[in-house]
Write a structure and sequence with these properties.
The complex is a heterodimer. By secondary structure, chain A is of the alpha+beta class. Helices cover 26% and strands 27% of the residues of chain A. Chain A has four domains: 69 residues, 2-Layer Sandwich (Phenylalanyl-tRNA Synthetase, Chain B, domain 1), CATH 3.30.56.10; 204 residues, Phenylalanyl-tRNA Synthetase, Chain B, domain 3; 68 residues, Phenylalanyl-tRNA Synthetase, Chain B, domain 1; 200 residues, Bira Bifunctional Protein, Domain 2 (BirA Bifunctional Protein, domain 2, 2-Layer Sandwich). In chain A, strands 4, 5, 6, 7, 8, 11, 12, 13, 14, 15 and 16 form an eleven-stranded mixed β-sheet that branches. A seven-stranded mixed β-sheet of chain A has the order 20-23-24-28-27-26-25, sandwiched between helices. Chain A is elongated, with a radius of gyration of 40 Å. In chain B, 36% of the residues lie in helices and 22% in strands. Classes of the chains: A alpha+beta, B alpha+beta.
């Protein structure tokens, strides 16, 4: 996206008010431009020269670097940008640009020779009459040409602009294409006469101009513009002649745009003349020039006619999703520099696109301007249908994969077990306050809803005695605990368990797994008592061996235990090898 | 032996103040004593405090002189008491290094006359250097000046001596019990686990690093995003085609041929295969027309559209090239609404730095239906981004050749306390959709963002090369948490 550098104070003067930076940023945001950087002339220069940045002093002019959309050539300078914002703010009306009414005889003429079609076939011209430059507007005039050359002109390949002091020249003009040795003139900023072929050689060492040479250097003929005295106006797209150079005192400016793309040439010419006609004696009026082709056909430029478009109101409101009346739409469009009014029966809006708005191609562009003026952020949102999966199950799945990646094999065990397995065999006492008891069990295997994953895990090991050691298994599943707060008096809890069984207890390995689970949950290891992460403390649970067990404290809450399974418990489940076991409640990970 | 000595000593004494002295008093090697102290300390039989001392030890050269005498004395003794000896003769009697050093030191001490003939100047000398070296060897104190002179001659070097002072620990016993570090199968078999005393765990340290596999953070985020799209009813587009023609990448999207994005500065064009072999001719004609002269209510760009430009192959610069193909195929069917998404690699001819790579991943979502509005776009963006944890959004007008309206998406970043751009969105232009053959009231709303940016924000990574590519930081991949996007 192109960036325009503008003096802040001059911009605010043009906007007839000052803004805090934040206010200005908000204005930019809603209009669709962006305040990219705030700097000073000094800072820009020292950055270019890679110098140490000097401390900006208070009297340095503050420069705003503003990013503008790539298709808004009218915003590439202070004049155009300030005008667009003034109109957007409702401070100004849309100007009507006119072409001066003068007879064909009095009109300046540009004759196009046939040879130009070999290299750069198009030229369009216009005159800005009675212009008054001051230093600022003069610089802006030069800068805009630069910006246009960089952007729409695609580094002068598509279009090149030449501006001249008309009073130093004598029409009619001719646009020709000649063999380089036949072109001879003093180029801008030089004092000596150059032949065009020599000039090309000369500019090979010019850092600014050398990149444009390739556009014509391999051609047998070079494009050139003469006046009736054979004074060279320019050698497009490289350089203008010194003779017709414009100055601060220039009153009448002759603008020519040579091109390989006529549409872009017209846009560039229109951008130049509409932007600077504001400094003309007859404000917003441009004097036309007749361009006469070698085949006798002729066209008058600039073409400042407005482009008319009829846009159905329903298209605009139906695309934006906001019900708007015709008047509201026309008022919104006027803030975007588009003159609009109710057409005929009132179902359509008639829009006149001024010559400054070459970006408007289709009613969708008009619709967008309505939406911008209405405010994107004022449009009510509509929700499309969508689903939300259960966070607990999503988290379970992610944790399950991580544990499997740590080398554990997943098991899926039964929810139901015997009372004995759930309590006595784990060295626990049933105090009747935890487990859901089944009233009509068909066998002792289904007496109780498990309160821990441990019996299922130990039964799995007990039944896999022949499996090569070590055994590393895990399960993520629900247990049920009595719960006074629930209507039915019981609630599920999602637990994670892991077990190691081998020649040794594998306690360290289970400890490492605890660390890994905390790491994948993004939880730091903290000193005991710190509530910002997790820590491990000695615990005293009957199912684990004394002194060989610990509780896991996560953000200040005990969420589980791990340890070496008590040998009596192992014996109860007929397991001959030592085991370490981990169990924790993963629902805590979802609470913030 | 050392263990019995220490535990036995502490049974009667309060403290062993210095393990070094203790070792020499008891005729033990200090190293053995230290090892026992460390082990007893681990089981908290004793408490040990570090002691550090600077001491001097002899260098190899110093050891030699301590045994054979200093070079200057060796030289002096080689000179006859009476008369003189030729220098050559003297040199033959001594080792070369002894001769060299001896000459200079004995000369400096004015013990001998050094000429072609060497003779004694004094009759009797003392080997002070040797005496000092022997004292150092015996760990006796010597004067500061002497230390400096021996140090300067590189005969002694400083050594830090480490030892301990030791007191009884909380588990002190005059004799160590049998301690175990782990419960083993044998313990269970022998049923001796009841007698075992275990070494206490240190829960202030983490466990040993776990052996584990790890998924790449970018792909973890990709997986979550994919889930989010699926939950929102989006179907995945086939994006396994990196090579694309300019036609599908640009022209079909109503992106004019002179657009800067089509410069070689921004796009990788291909040498082989340089051009596409075929394009759907009927459709190409419609695209050409809409570029050149508009239609469908548009003015068009009014330039000469060149087929050669459209034929040029490239590495796709956006996955929207695939979306275009999908929409083109969709338009050929009787109309049915669709939601599509993709997350895949795209390529830009950019120089690589901390935040830019020549290839990255684009996330794209689009909804194609009749009567869609900007309100739908804003709604779907709110749904999508709030699932990513970004519920505070605002939208800025922007320009994009193939969408109109176009909206840049900004999210308020609580950490940075400012609005940051997180993606782009818009409604595809009629000039793109109508030549495909869609009915006029069908609209397509779409958005895109990079996968890298949210991932970097999520995992606090500020250099994209640490995350993606061969310069990746592997430990960063390993320590990253699971991606909880979409889970809240």
């Amino acid at each position: 996206m192109p960036t325009v550098s503008i003096g802040r104070d001059r911009l605010f003067a043009a906007l007839r008010r000052s803004y805090t930076q934040e206010e200005f940023e908000d204005l930019c945001f809603s209009f669709g431009i962006e305040l990219d950087d705030v700097t000073t002339e000094k800072a820009i220069i020292s950055k270019e020269k890679h110098l140490e940045e000097e401390k900006p002093s208070a009297d340095d002019e503050i420069i705003y670097k503003i990013e503008v959309p790539a298709n808004r050539y009218d915003l590439l300078c202070l004049e155009g940008l300030a005008q667009a914002l003034r109109i957007f703010n409702g401070q100004a009306k849309i100007p009507r640009y006119t072409v001066a009414k003068i007879s064909k005889e009095l009109m300046h003429k540009m004759h196009v020779k046939k040879e130009t079609s070999l290299i750069r076939p198009f030229v369009v011209c216009a005159v800005l009459r009675g212009i008054t430059f001051d230093e600022t507007s003069y610089n802006s005039f030069i800068d805009l040409q630069d910006k246009l050359h960089q952007n729409i002109c695609r580094k002068r390949t598509l279009v090149a602009i030449g501006t001249h002091d008309l009073d130093t020249l004598q029409g009619p003009f001719t646009y020709e294409a000649l063999p380089p040795p036949k072109i001879n003139f003093v180029p801008l900023k030089q004092v000596k006469n150059f032949r065009a072929d020599e000039l090309m050689e000369f500019y090979k060492s010019d850092s600014k101009l050398k990149k444009f040479l390739e556009i014509i250097e391999h051609s047998s003929v070079f494009p050139v513009i003469y006046d009736s005295n054979r004074t060279v106006l320019s050698l497009p797209p490289i350089i203008n002649g010194a003779h017709s150079a414009i100055t601060l005192k220039t009153k009448n400016v002759f603008i020519e745009c040579t091109a390989t793309d006529i549409t872009k040439a017209k846009i560039v010419l229109n951008t130049m003349v509409t932007t600077f006609a504001t400094y003309c004696e007859r404000k917003f009026e441009v004097e036309p020039v007749e361009v006469i082709s070698f085949d006798g056909s002729s066209s008058v430029y600039p073409d400042l006619s407005e482009y008319n478009m009829e846009v159905p109101l329903s298209y605009i409101t139906g695309s934006i999703g906001v019900p708007l009346e015709v008047d509201e739409v026309t008022n919104l469009l006027k803030r975007m520099q588009l003159n609009a009014e109710k057409a005929g029966s009132g179902h359509n809006i008639s829009v006149s696109v001024p010559p400054t708005r070459s970006d408007i191609l289709h009613p969708c562009d008009v619709m967008e301007d309505v939406a911008i003026a209405y405010g994107y952020n004022n449009i009510p949102k509509r929700k499309l249908s969508s689903l939300k999966p259960l966070p607990l199950n999503q988290l379970s799945d992610l944790i399950r994969s991580e544990i499997a990646m740590s080398g554990f094999t997943e098991v899926l065990t039964w929810i139901l077990c015997s009372k004995k397995e759930n309590f006595e065999m784990l060295n626990r006492k049933d105090d009747k306050s935890t487990a859901v008891i089944i009233g009509n069990p068909r066998s002792s295997d289904f007496e109780v809803v498990r309160t821990s994953l441990m019996p299922g895990m130990l039964k799995t090991v007990g039944h896999n005695k022949d499996h090569p050691k070590p055994i590393k298994i895990y399960e993520v599943g629900d247990v049920v605990l009595l719960d006074e707060k629930k209507d039915v008096g019981a609630s599920n809890h999602r637990l994670l368990s892991a077990l190691y069984c081998g020649a040794n207890s594998g306690f360290e390995l289970i400890h490492s797994l605890v660390d890994r689970i905390m790491e994948v949950m993004g939880t730091p290891f903290v000193p005991v008592g710190d509530k910002s992460g997790y820590y491990i403390e000695l615990s005293d649970e009957p199912e684990f061996l004394l002194g060989r067990q610990a509780k896991i404290v996560y953000k200040g809450r005990r969420i589980g235990n791990f340890g070496i399974v008590h040998p009596e418990v192992l014996n109860n489940f007929d397991i001959p090898d030592p085991c370490s076991f981990l169990e924790l409640d993963i629902e805590y990970f979802l609470q913030s | 032996m050392a263990e019995d000595a220490i535990l036995g000593y502490l049974a009667v004494a309060e403290e062993i103040p210095d393990s070094g002295q203790f070792a020499s008093q008891h005729g033990l090697h200090h190293n053995d004593v230290v090892n026992v102290i460390k082990s007893l300390h681990g089981f908290r039989y004793i408490d040990a405090q570090d002691i550090k001392r600077e001491s001097w030890v002899l260098t190899d050269e110093g050891k030699k002189y301590a045994a054979d005498g200093s070079p200057e004395v060796q030289l002096f003794l080689a000179v006859p008491q009476e008369g003189s000896i030729s220098k050559d003769e003297l040199q033959k009697k001594l080792e070369p290094s002894v001769f060299k050093i001896g000459c200079s030191q004995a000369g400096k001490n004015k013990w001998v006359d050094m000429g072609k003939q060497v003779s004694r100047k004094v009759q009797h000398v003392e080997d002070k250097v040797k005496d000092l070296l022997i004292r150092v060897q015996n760990v006796e104190e010597i004067g500061k000046d002497d230390v400096n002179s021996l140090k300067a001659r590189k005969l002694i070097v400083a050594q830090t001596w480490k030892g301990y002072s030791v007191r009884k620990g909380p588990n002190y016993a005059p004799k160590r019990k049998k301690v175990a570090t782990d419960l083993t199968r044998e313990n269970l078999q022998r049923a001796d686990w009841k007698e075992l005393e275990f070494k206490e765990y240190n829960f202030n340290a983490k466990g040993p690093p776990a052996e584990s596999g790890h998924l790449h953070p970018l792909l973890k985020v990709k997986q979550q995003l994919k889930n989010i799209f699926l939950q929102m009813g989006f179907e995945e587009m086939p994006t396994n085609n990196f090579v694309e023609s300019s036609f599908w990448n640009f022209d079909a999207l109503f992106q004019p041929q002179q657009h800067p994005a089509r410069d070689s500065h921004d796009t990788f064009f291909l040498e082989a295969p340089s051009t596409t072999r075929e394009l759907p001719e009927d459709y190409v004609e419609l695209v050409k027309c809409v570029h050149e002269s508009g239609g469908y209510g548009s003015r068009g760009y009014m330039y000469d559209w060149k087929r050669e430009e459209a034929n040029k192959n490239l590495l796709r610069t956006h996955t929207t090239a695939v979306s275009t193909r999908m929409l083109y195929a969709l338009a050929k069917q009787p109309f049915a609404p669709k939601r599509y998404f993709s997350i895949d690699r795209v390529f830009r001819n950019e120089s690589v730095d901390r935040t830019h790579l020549a290839e990255f991943h684009q996330i794209e979502g689009l909804v194609c239906d009749r009567g869609l509005t900007l309100g739908d776009l804003i709604g779907v963006l709110n749904d999508f981004f709030s699932r990513l944890g970004m519920s505070k959004l605002r939208f800025k007008p922007a320009y994009n050749p193939y969408t109109e309206p176009s909206m840049e998406i900004f999210s308020y970043h609580e950490g940075l306390k400012k609005w940051v751009e997180i993606g782009n969105s818009g409604m595809f232009r009629p000039e793109m959709l109508l030549p495909m053959g869609f009915p006029e009231d069908v609209r397509v709303i779409a958005w895109g963002l990079s996968l890298e940016r949210p991932t970097m924000i999520l995992y606090g990574i500020d250099n994209i090369r640490d995350l993606f590519g061969h310069k990746v930081d592997l430990s960063l991949i390993k320590r990253n948490p699971i991606c909880r996007l979409g889970i809240n």
